Amino acid sequence: MLHTGRRRTKLNCAYNGPARQGPVRHISPSSLSLQRVHEQNRASMQKKDLPKAPEPAPGVAAKGKPRLLLMGQRSSFMDFQVWDFPGQVDFMDPSFDLDAIFGEIGALIWVIDAQDDYLEAINRLNSTILNLQPSYPNVNIEVFIHKVDGLSDDYKLDIQRDIMQRIQDELSDHGVENAPINFHLTSIYNHSIFEAFSKVIQKLIPHLPTLEALLNDLCRACRFEKAYLFDVLSKIYIATDSSPVDMPSYEICSDFIDVIVDVSEIYGWERPKEYIEYLEGPPWSKGLEDQVACRDAESDIVLTDGKRPILLREVNKYLALVAIMCEGSYEKMPGVTLNVEGTVSGLKEVFEITKRR
After folding, report:
1. Prediction pTM value
2. What is each CA distance from 259 to 251, 262, 263, 271, 307, in whole angstroms?
3. Which of 128, 157, 311, 315 is spaced 20 to 30 A from 115 at the CA atom?
4. 27-31, 292-296, 353-357: the lowest-pLDDT one
5. What are the DSSP calls for 254-311, one per residue?
6. Residues 6+ apart with CB under 8 A from 336
7. What is the mean pLDDT of residues 237-251?
8. How many angstroms from the chain centroid is the CA of residue 189?
């Protein structure tokens, strides 16, 4: 479940109005719930999508009852949390406070095992949707049809059509039309799980059109083939330009971030105070931040197969702009650098405006 920033009043702790969209770090922590996943599947998905997340913290529950495990995720732009609901827990039971669970949610992710009997999972999903619709009609239902690796393309589509048809028929029989349900084919053995999470997150960002417009302008000005705005830790892209997403380009950009992060962890070091004072002393007599041309991380590599440079530019400590350039772009690097700097400044301004709100 992804929280979207509703606030409680100080007087009676009641929710004070509709959810404010946007899983951005400075609005409120978000929360992600993976429903109906076997333990090994949930663990594998978290390890794949949140490779550096801390260990689960024990949930608080009455003695003898199943616990809800909270996996904190505090070093990401989205700052979301993962709530694992054991399959035997009926959170629609009157003993549960539904407003506390679903009151701040923007999206509910329901995971279905494509290689298992999914009829029970579909029935519980339909029951959940029917219970949520009257009170929380704006919650996006995201269905991850998981473990599709090893299945043929035709069989994947057949399973997806069957699941979609069963869900839609059941909801139609109960008078629920046009429920906000989306379906994604996912696997931990490729980047499809990152792609699915990226699409879920983007629906919760209110200023997404502004981010896309900035990236579109950058691609036109610099003749970039593709540009992504990545959350560095999770490799989820929160925005991209309007051209179709090319999975190979996304994969190479994601892997490039991994390389930069790994190199930084190996060679990065905390400079002693005495060494910093030496660097800032004569003959420069300036602070370190005033002695460098770019205060944020910046890197370029060239793919040998297509001779296409890949550019990475740090936006802030959580986000990075990664773009695939056209062949021969190095000849225009001064102009490219200027345009990228302007785009990064625009992105920072958008986030600052959102923060003030």
Report:
1. 0.72
2. 12, 5, 6, 22, 19
3. 128
4. 27-31
5. HHHHHHHHHHHHHH-----HHHHHHHHSTTT-S-GGGSSS-SS-EEEEE-TTT--EEE
6. 222, 311, 325, 329
7. 90
8. 18
